[in-house]
Amino acid sequence: MMPITPRTILVVDDDEGMRDTLAAILKGNYRILTAASGEQALEQFKHEDIDLVLLDVRLPGIDGLEVLKIIKETQSLVEFIMISAITEVETAVQAMKLGAFHYITKDFEYDALRSLVRNALERQDLSRQVLSLNAQVAEDSGREFVIGSSKVMRDIADLAQKVAKLPATVLILGESGTGKELLARFLHRASGRIGAPFIAVNVAAIPRDLAESMLFGHERGAFTGADRQRLGKFELASHGTLFLDEIGDLHLDLQAKLLRAIQEGEIERVGGTRVIKTDFRLVVATASDLEQAVSEGKFREDLFYRINVVPFRLPPLHERIEDLPELVKLFLDRHSRRFRKRVLGFSDSALRVLSEHRWPGNIRELEHLVERLVAVTDKDWISAEDLPIEYHLARFDRDGEADRYHSACKTFERNLLLKALERSDWNVTGAARHLGVPLSTLKHSMGRLEIREITRRLRRA
After folding, report:
1. Does CATH place domain 319-460 in 1.10.8.60?
2. Which end of the chain has the least Cβ crowding within 10 Å, N or C?
3. Which of 214, 194, 198, 204 is nearest to 282 (CA)?
4. Of 221, 38, 222, which Cα lies nearest the Cα of 114?
5. From CA 162, how far away is CA 439, in angstroms rounded?
6. What is the pLDDT of residues 306-364, one digit of tens each?
């Protein structure tokens, strides 16, 4: 297990003996910094990432309460334990109102201080987790599962509505970028657990030596650097939904623990001795072939059958290409708002080119393309000429050998005319003058290349 970087504690006291005592009590488990005044403490915060402050109330210059107030205004997650030579009820109340975790006198017991520090840092961990989850909810609030008009997606949506409220485990299969996590979130929202947490974990992204602790949690002292208790993803998902993406990458030794969590509804933290009951809805996903992994001994057969209760298979984008216009509109609206631009849509020619692409990156690739085009455009409409050349070339690769040259020439000619029209503010006479061709020739080419309707729409817009 990889050691965890120790937390940093700043001891602030004008009494050198007290600073040394506090440092000696805590230095075995934490990184200790010291300061003899409020001014020195504030200077430390300019250069150090500090988790907790043991702060004397009475200091020369800026006193402890003022230091507490200043730091809490800019770094609200930093925890404070205030220390005073005597108990002053009014000062203690004021410190707690300013956000201090606790208030103690200098005749404290060593073990009691260590316990207070652990509890303060555990509260900090929970605060960070809440902020992280809130940020995740805000980020994903606009990322809905798009059903589209294709039959295969309507069937998936119908099945999802039927099983959403059931506690059955769901397995989502599909290539990377097909929207597996979005379907998992759709199931969560439709399950009636909307007020409960949705915890998403990419199993493939977790280092092997951290996977067990991250998923199941650990007790204080379970391994080197485990100076505090940590809740795992299973506990954080309590009464909500746990989404394990790329489940095929879960190590065999953890597959047994996952099986027990599903079947028995209980887990044990690393280093723990007691069983913890769990209650969550499990949704797993993978882009790999689990049946082949079972035959190769890389995935437990009993776990495969346990998670394969309600399977979904999300099709790649090229198998639901009729949904592409709706997806493009969704992403266009999303990123137009994000970049504060007025982009009305994609031209028919652009949509035609996109519909002939194979989309190896699926919906994720499409969104990234739309985001890029919206970011760089200064036009109201995005046309075929705005698409990267690789999307045109992909279409040529699907043509026969005899048609490839003519397709490339047609695309070049069409883009050239569109650029000329755009430069002349969609005035056909001006575009003909810019190109140095007769007006009749330009009009004939526009008809042959299906440009006339586009120019009408663009000028109306």
Report:
1. yes
2. C
3. 198
4. 221
5. 61
6. 999 999 999 999 999 999 999 999 999 999 998 999 899 999 989 998 998 999 999 99
Q: Which long-range contacts (CB under 8 A, 24 or more apart) does 396-399 make?
A: 398/356
Residues 150/355, Cβ–Cβ less than 8 Å? no
pLDDT at residue 378 tops 70? yes
Tokens 């002292």 sit on residue: 221
Domain with CATH 3.40.50.300 in the chain: 143-315
Q: How far apart are CA 247 and CA 245, in angstroms?
A: 5
Task: Name which CATH class applies to 143-315.
Answer: alpha beta
Whether pTM exceeds 0.70: no
> In angstroms, what CA-CA distances link 72 with 76, 80, 95, 101, 330?
5, 9, 11, 12, 41
Delimiting residues of CATH 3.40.50.2300 domain(s) in the chain:
8-133
Residues contacting residue 185 through CB under 8 Å, at least 6 positions apart: 140, 143, 145, 198, 243
Q: How far apart are CA 340 and CA 337, in angstroms?
A: 5
Q: Who contacts 364 (Cβ-Cβ below 8 Å, separation ≥6)?
A: 176, 177
CATH number of 8-133: 3.40.50.2300
Higher pLDDT, 396 or 427: 427
